[in-house]
Queue: 3 jobs
Job 1
Amino acid sequence: AAEKEMGEILYSKLGRPEETIQHYQQLLARPTTAGRKDVPEMLFRIGRSYFQLWRFDDAVDVFSRITQDHQDSPWAEKARFEIAGAYFTHGEKGGSYQKALQGYERFIALYPQSVLVPQARFGIASSLAEMDRLQESYDEFEKLRGIYPAPGVIEVKLARLRDRILKRKGI
């Protein structure tokens, strides 16, 4: 319990991602840790710590491990969402926006009742915009009107997309 609390302190209170990764990896390497119900949570924190360090490929690897090895855990849903977010944040490198788009779509297909669905739809719309698929992006953001938790953000996105679409048309 004390070791888990130490991981919580490193992760949440001190914000030390390198030390968080090391701490949880050491815990997970112990034979006594296997089978514990908090393993997916520890893995999730490792993944988020990699994300904070901009080590997106490592983050995706850890999150994917959660979705494969702990698919019945509530952490699998969060990990699936984070995979798409890691690809999106990674940017243009290696087709990451397309991977993000696919990741968000897969998330919605697997977890259609999730509270994270509006954020996943926002991710889809944002990925489309980054891939310069402006009208598709606009249509997706339009669908978020009234359901996204920050309506002002949707209006700003729509206005910017309208400007980009008009500029493309030479108007």
Note: The two ends are 63 Å apart (CA to CA).
Job 2
Amino acid sequence: YHISHFSVSKKVISKDGTRKWLFKLEDGKELETVYIPDNNRGTICVSSQVGCTLSCSFCHTGTMKFKRNLNVAEILGQVMYVKNELQDWNQKGNKKKITNLVFMGMGEPFFNYDNVIKAINILTNMKGLAFSKRKITLSTSGVVPKILDFKEDSDVNLAVSLHAAFDEVRDILVPLNKKWPIQILLKALKDY
């Protein structure tokens, strides 16, 4: 195993308590992680890649070139860093600050499938971080072949960034739609 260490290049805290970190990895590459507090829950938005290959028109990450997939330690390191910073380690009588995790950060999680699945298994394992599977969501832009793999490999929540109901519009917003149009995506989701 490897324990990854990364430093903070930049940290921003908004008026509503949302926190963003730009982490510098051991190789100098950077990734973003976000913590979003909301009434009785707090969500960490986890990245799975440095950059992205998809170039979705609405996403700033899509304007960056893909650099590489994150390894398991780097995925888990984001959660560990935020838990440490918020001092969210099961202190008796204290309300949990982090209740949910979403794989909606930088990158397409299904394009780093093996490392994301390994990280989810550690996050949900009672000897790991013991997150409830119902409190973790993986969001995909619609990588159809991996949707059915995911059905077999994990039972955390699955979300799809649809962004349009018609192929003509979705082709522009989510170029991956040209490879797996809406009807093929919907069929895979029905099978899922």
Note: The radius of gyration is 17 Å.
Job 3
Amino acid sequence: MDLILDKYGEKKNYKKGEMLFNNGYWPKGVYKILYGKVKIFACGDEGKENIIHIASKSEIIGFRAMLSGLPYKVSAKTLEECCIQYIPKSDFMILMDSNDSFRNKVIVRLSRELGERALFTTTMSQKTVRARLAVSLIQLNDIYHGPISLSRDDLANFIGTATENLIRTLKQFKTEKLIEFKGRTIYIINIDKLNHIGKD
């Protein structure tokens, strides 16, 4: 799927904090992340963000809304400098109609991601803030391939808690020698104990 898309669209560099698409807008194409990270989020009635996913290198975003024929239900914003390939809707839909292998790969990816997202959301909703943070730090460590460079507000929105609660729990983790800070960057130093906490 990824290699086929490489032949289409154009590449563009984005600065940190740039919007790719907004909730309520009609999709006009899909986005393949070549490098960098993008947060996918929804906003509550009071404007508080709920980060649903952090997309990274090689991920393709925006295709669910396009295939549904409905406006975006979420928004996407860069978390850092990114290079992103934009593939117009016309090219993507031609591939869907003419290439059986591509269409099947899209369906498999969509089904897998929806299943994983539903399971993750259900599991996380039943956990304490402490357990949610442990699980999220492990997940983010995989996404970032090491040190986690994410603002405290974004991290709080990712695990679904107030920033004050997040900061307090981070300090507890630091005291327990599970993590360390260098500036605002988080380093995991005891992933086994975090795994244990995440199972609570």
Note: The chain has a mean pLDDT of 91.
